[in-house]
Amino acid sequence: MTVAPELGTGATLTFVTSGYSANLISTTLPSFSRPVIDVTHLGTTGGRDTKAGDLYEVGTATAVFQVDHDDPPPYTAVDEVIRWTLPQSTGETTPSKEEGTGRVTNVEYGEITVDGLMTVTLTMSFTGDWTQTDST
Fold this sequence. Notes:
Shape: extended
Largest sheet: 6 strands, antiparallel
Structural class: mainly beta
Radius of gyration: 19 Å
Number of helices: 0
Helix content: under 10%
Oligomer: single chain
């Protein structure tokens, strides 16, 4: 199957619970990992035996926004739904979405320069399930 690469133009990131959103410059979606469980026992011969764990872990994600210092990003201990809306492909009527429940764990403001836009880099961590909605 040949996959046509998509441009990132048009992607958004919204903190659904607090309603925060700003001009998104760049972002990474979180990684996913599943533990490998060693099930080797004294009767095992040859190589070690393993099986995949039932639960997966959602890793961290980052986002760089243009920021208005009077409207700072959410940085509280309260979890909220964080949603990425990805660009629509030609011929589709609804964009794909990725979302999970998480929190901002790090806020790093960019350099403030003459005639430069202020930016902020957010690191987010997630808990529980992750939802992917395909475009149509």
